[in-house]
Amino acid sequence: MRAFIYIFLTFIGCSVFLGCKTGKHLTSTDCHTQIIVHDKLIPVFRPSDSASIRALLECDSNGRVLLSWFDMAQSENAKLRFQLDSMGNLLADFKVPSDTVYIQGKDSTIIKAEVKYIEVERKRNAWEKFCIGFTIIALLSIIAFVILKLRSIIKF
Asked: What is the value of pTM for the model shown?
C-alpha cells in the first residue's frame, strides 16, 4: 500500500511540474528596407547669352539717315539680326534658345518599414486541457489527504 502511495505522489509531482509550460512571447524588431528608383529629367541651366550693337547714325543734307559706323558683338548661342532701311527705320531682332537643358537621371527613395507583430492568445489543445484539469484535481486530492492526516495526528 505504501508503494502505491509513493508511486501516486511521484506521478502527481511529475504532472504538477512537467504538465504544462508557459507560452513564448513573440518580440521582434524586423525592419524591411525598400528602395524605389525613379527615372526623371534633371534641369541644367545654361549661362545667359548677350548681344550688343554699337552704331553711328548720321543725317545727310537730304534728311536721310546714313549708317556711318557699325559694330555688332554676340555670344555663340545668340542670333542677332540688324537692319537699317533707307527711310531710317532700325530693325533689330534678338533670338536666344531656351536657357534650360534637361538631362535624364535617376532618383532613389529609401523606405524603411517596421514590421509589428501582434500577440494573439492561441487556443489550448486537448492534451493541455487534460493536464490543467488533472493538475487541479491532483492538487485538491493532495490537500484533502494532508488535511485528513493532520486531523488524525492532532486528535492523538
From this structure: 0.30
